[in-house]
Design a protein that fits this description.
With 272 residues, the chain is mainly α. It contains 18 helices and no strands. Helix 5 crosses helix 7, helix 7 runs parallel beside helix 9 (144-153) and helix 15 (221-235) packs antiparallel against helix 16 (239-252).
Length: 272
């Protein structure tokens, strides 16, 4: 039995080779969360997958899972996790305790396991409102990695029903939880990072103005950076609109938060 208590609150190793063996064992057993990218990359994905499958009530020796793990090396690291998530999702298809298994995965001690649970939303045949309701726990997750996977999981459904999605997200930008507010901003970024671009918002970023306006003086730096990045994305295709919006915000909102957002939002334009 691994005693995880001494491992909590640790600082992440600066190199994979410096990760302490007890930490790596606990990560691979699904007992603790990663604290940085080095730990995430160091995980033995096959070992973690089989341990998590067993812990949530799935057969770790199932042929579907075995075949997926055997082909992981053919994919880039991030894509490997998507294939694992799909395999686990498929294993629950006819399982009599599917909801219970989904709950165990979504509340697992491992942030990586919770990421897989968030990715299940990419495979589920649900409406956009239902997916937004289901993703909320991941959007508010305590771990930064799970929160990133949460918005990426809904990126395509949002782009496919943009106007409806923008309307549904309006209460999110007024939520008391900064993670929920930031999710709405990241999900709708015109360009984003490691994801498909939303062409409609590149061409007409003003369609999302009702989401941006309530965030223009947000008290959270986490949210401020997201809004600034959103507008910086938009400035690459609609520079005049972003510039004019920034000018208006500075006139209407004499707050340091707004000044910070506008300054970062205009960084690409100021370099030109």
């Amino acid at each position: 039995m691994i005693d995880v208590q001494p491992l909590l609150g640790r600082k992440g190793a600066t190199r994979i080779a410096l990760i302490a063996p007890p930490v790596l064992d606990a990560l691979n057993e699904g007992l603790i969360e990663t604290v940085n990218l080095n730990e995430f990359l160091a995980i033995d994905l096959a070992r973690l997958t089989t341990r998590v499958a067993d812990q949530v009530g799935l057969d770790p020796d199932h042929e579907r899972l075995h075949d997926t793990l055997a082909m992981l090396d053919a994919f880039k690291p991030i894509k490997r996790h998507l294939h694992v998530a799909r395999a686990l999702y498929d294993l629950t298809a006819a399982h009599p305790e599917r909801d219970a298994i989904a709950h165990r995965l979504a509340t697992h001690a491992s942030d990586v396991a919770r990421c897989w649970a968030a990715q299940w939303l990419m495979f589920a045949e649900q409406s956009l409102p239902d997916k937004l309701q289901a993703v909320r726990c991941f959007a508010a997750d305590r771990h930064f990695g799970v929160r990133e996977v949460a918005w990426m999981a809904l990126r395509d459904p949002l782009a496919g029903a943009l106007d409806k999605g923008l309307l549904l997200l309006q209460p999110w930008v007024r939520d008391p939880d900064e993670n929920i507010r930031r999710f709405a901003s990241e999900l709708t970024r015109p360009r984003g990072v490691w994801c498909a671009q939303i062409e409609a918002l590149k061409a007409e970023p003003w369609r999302a103005l009702n989401l941006l306006e309530p965030l223009r003086a947000d008290p959270s730096r986490y949210v401020q950076n997201s809004v600034a990045n959103w507008l910086n994305d938009a400035s690459k295709s609609q520079p005049q609109w972003v510039s004019q919006l920034g000018e208006r915000w500075l006139v209407e909102s004499d707050a340091p938060q707004t000044r910070y957002i506008v300054r970062r939002a205009l960084r690409t334009l100021l370099k030109q």
